[in-house]
């Protein structure tokens, strides 16, 4: 793990590095609470933004080459690709082969239907880590302390409302992730 700290400290801007440390710690705590391997969660949380600062055209280029584009929205908003491209680069550049970690990194940007507990933890930790300050974050943190699925659902809905309020494009995977949770709960 130490080698990844040093690598990220050199690769990421200071604020993004602090955010990654916050996500790693938050993810590890959520993992312990939910019976998931905390070191796997810490690693995924630490590395989740590995590709976040690549230029949009490079994210798009790497995603095109690897066949990672799932919809037109990603071509219009290449920043959404930093999760899947990050997972690709973690395997290529760092030799990380843990499929659960790679999937959690890939899915942390927009979500997906049938997310695993580790996927949900990384998505949620990215939203609620201690450096995040926005209206409603305290409620999300309280929900995360009580129930992972409820907190994950609230985090998805917070994201959806944020995007709609700004009249931006909403990725269909985020809606699918929300609907999947509701359907599996019988909603």
Automatic annotation (TrEMBL):
One of its GO terms (molecular function) is nucleotide binding. The keyword Membrane does not apply. It catalyses: P(1),P(4)-bis(5'-adenosyl) tetraphosphate + H2O = 2 ADP + 2 H(+). Its EC number is 3.6.1.41. Pfam families: HD. Keywords: Hydrolase, Iron, Metal-binding, Nucleotide-binding, Nucleotidyltransferase, Transferase. InterPro entries: Diverse_Catalytic_Enzymes, HD/PDEase_dom, HD_domain, YqeK. It comes from the Bacteria. Gene3D superfamilies: Hypothetical protein af1432. PROSITE patterns: HD (PS51831). Residues 16-131 form the HD domain. This is bis(5'-nucleosyl)-tetraphosphatase (symmetrical).
């Amino acid at each position: 793990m130490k080698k990844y700290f040093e690598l990220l400290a050199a690769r990421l801007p200071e604020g993004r590095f602090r955010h990654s440390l916050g996500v790693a710690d938050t993810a590890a705590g959520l993992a312990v609470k939910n019976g998931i391997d905390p070191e796997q969660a810490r690693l995924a949380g630490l590395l989740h933004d590995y590709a976040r600062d690549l230029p949009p055209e490079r994210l798009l280029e790497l995603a095109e080459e690897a066949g990672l584009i799932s919809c037109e929205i990603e071509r219009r908003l290449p920043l959404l690709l930093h999760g899947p491209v990050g997972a690709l680069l973690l395997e290529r550049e760092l030799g990380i082969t843990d499929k659960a970690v790679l999937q959690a990194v890939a899915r942390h940007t927009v979500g997906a239907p049938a997310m695993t507990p580790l996927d949900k933890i990384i998505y949620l930790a990215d939203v609620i880590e201690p450096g995040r300050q926005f209206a409603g974050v305290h409620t999300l943190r309280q929900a995360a302390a009580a129930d992972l699925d409820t907190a994950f659902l609230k985090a998805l809905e917070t994201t959806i409302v944020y995007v709609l309020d700004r009249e931006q494009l909403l990725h269909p995977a985020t809606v699918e992730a929300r609907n999947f949770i509701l359907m599996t709960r019988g909603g």
